[in-house]
Amino acid sequence: MVDSEHLKTKVMKGGSLKKFRRQFRAWKNKKRLKQELDHYNSIFASRHLTIPDDRTIQQTIRQKFPHLKPKPKGELHILAIYHHYNWENESLKPALAKFGTVRHYDWFEEFNHQRKDWHKSVRAEMNEYLVNRIGRWIKEDNIDVIFAYLSGELVTPETMRALKAVGVPMINLALNDKEHFVGKIRHGQAMGSRDICRYFDLYWTSTEDALKKYCAEGALPIYLPEGANPEIHRPYDVDKTIDVSFVGQCYGNRPELIRKLTLHGIRVEAYGYGWPNGPLSTDDMVRMYSRSKINLGFGGVVGHEDTYCLKGRDFEIPMSGGLYLTEYNRELEQFYNLGTDIVTYTGFEDLVSKIQDLLSNPEKAEAIRKSGYQRARNEHTWEMRFERIFRLMGLI
């Protein structure tokens, strides 16, 4: 571990104050996350806990809900609680609809018009509304399962205790538990999953090393990544007019890396909030994947050094028929054959080398693109993710 004063002296000698602040923040974040992981690993070992396998999950759910009867796929009644930020209604809702009727509650539609401070007013109102309405919705729709995409920033432990009391199986989805399992603390409550996870019957995390954290906090976790919707993320028959593209927000090391690629003679078109080109519509974004010879990815967690997590684009770009080149993340090896389905890089020089190789070998690039497309279509749809979840829970 680098000493903070040593880091400060080193950077101030040869770099800007802005660079120092960025590196110091990354050092602090890395130290915090290591302490958090060490803390939970210690608890996990001292209590002789184990990561639940499929059989354990099935047995635990059966003990909680002994009268649960599986239904044919397409006949479930599902209550979905999540806010549509920018991808949810195009991914979660269509996949859930494959399993039955869906009542979707988006609190933003209910409370956005008030334009009040979220933590001082709207959060409390949303939680009260949710508790008051949940019983009525369950009776009206004869709900079989509640699927949620919530965090401690949105709901309180008291709200989750009330929802648990209704006696309907509940699942929660958590993305990027690398940094957000605990997250910020407000008034003693974690804004991540820590303080609410134990109230759900199954907790779906896309972060493998968070599994021990969930077990230590009394939750029943399952590790599954995000997916993609093949009805939206599909190839387009268009000419490949762009060498390299990136679609995503402009922050962290992204602008500097793309600037350096340009200096190396590599043409990169970047789209999204913060870039001169601006954001793309969903349709234009998916078309961009087909228009690009290479689709660039970043796997790092902003503000955290050497910390990576799975991203939605890890599945959306290959499923859209795009050739995907992203930062190496060990977890990707569980879902793709690296170098055959997608390509990964470690460091800037490796990135330049991989781009030059793929651009100069179009037949090789095309073979990888096709392999990644088939892998994503065959194994990584959102429907497949929910199928696994609902079968394990004995719902279908």
Question: What is the CATH first-level class name of the largest domain?
Answer: Alpha Beta
Instruction: Supply the number of structural domains.
Output: 3
The number of helical elements comes to 15
Report low-confidence residues grouped into runs of 5 or more.
none
Strand order of the largest sheet: 2-1-3-4-7-8
Radius of gyration: 22 Å
Order of helices and strands: HHHEHEHHEHEHEEEHEEHEHEHEEHHH
**In the CATH hierarchy, what is the architecture of the largest domain at level 2?**
3-Layer(aba) Sandwich
Distance between the termini: 49 Å
CATH superfamily of the largest domain: Glycogen Phosphorylase B
Global outline? globular
> Approximately what portion of the residues adopt beta-strand conformation?
5-15%
Instruction: Look at the helices and sheets and give the structural class.
Output: alpha/beta
CATH topology of the largest domain: Rossmann fold
Helicity, as a percent range = 40-55%
Assembly state (oligomeric): single chain
Please describe the biggest sheet, giving its number of strands, its sense, and whether it closes into a barrel. Answer: 6 strands, parallel
Mean pLDDT: 90
* Number of beta-strand segments: 13
